Amino acid sequence: MKFDVSAALKKSTGRAKSDVANKLVSMLLHEISRIACAAGGMTVSDPRYAESVVAAFGTSCLYCGKQLEPDRTTVEHLNGMNRVSVGLHVPGNVAMACKKCNNAKRQDDQHLLLADNGWESFLSHDGRRCASECPTCAYWIGVLATDDVERYLAAARIRIQTFQAQYQQFVQWSADARDSLRKRAEKLYRDCQTFATNEITALTSDIQLGFSQGPRPSSPNG
Ligand SMILES: [Zn+2]
Ligand SMILES: [Zn+2]
What we know:
The chain is mainly alpha-helical and 222 residues long. It has one domain. The protein has helices at 5-13, 16-40, 47-57, 99-109, 118-122, 135-143, 149-165, 168-176, 178-204; strands spanning 73-77, 94-98. The protein has a two-stranded antiparallel ribbon. The structure holds zinc ion (2 copies).
């Protein structure tokens, strides 16, 4: 398949402002995580936490179970650190995943239809409740070396629940605080968008160009 230059260029045009707002939401959630970790006496960077991640998932992706490879691995937030999922960087919400699963889950996260949590929804696509063209269902069929997707995903969900049970206080607090965190994140996101729009309008209002004609694209043949 040829790379779609036109689609990529169009997509890049609308992105800049919301990227800033999303970054601020991530900073807010990191600060809340710092407060929670201080209260709970444990952090994600504590060596004991790493040990518990390895004990639960080995050195495999917590979703698909494939061996992690250095350049195809990412730190994964089971509930993503965005204004929809409002996941936190706290013990019980962080593990390692392959980049393919991370990406497929991010697509799936925009729906949150099959469960209350991002990770749980991602691992609930066993083909029974989705339309036939569901991309996450297709992802699991493509990536899992098993005919029994349903059983594999059920086992993966239990692995994660068992892991999270060790960090019940963080998991429970995150769930209880979710509505409140979402409201704060939404407020920051909106305020940032408004601020950016107003400031940028003010800072560009006096720019006047005397261009007399549109651009003339050069021919690729010179
Ligand atoms: Zn994976
Ligand atoms: Zn599905």
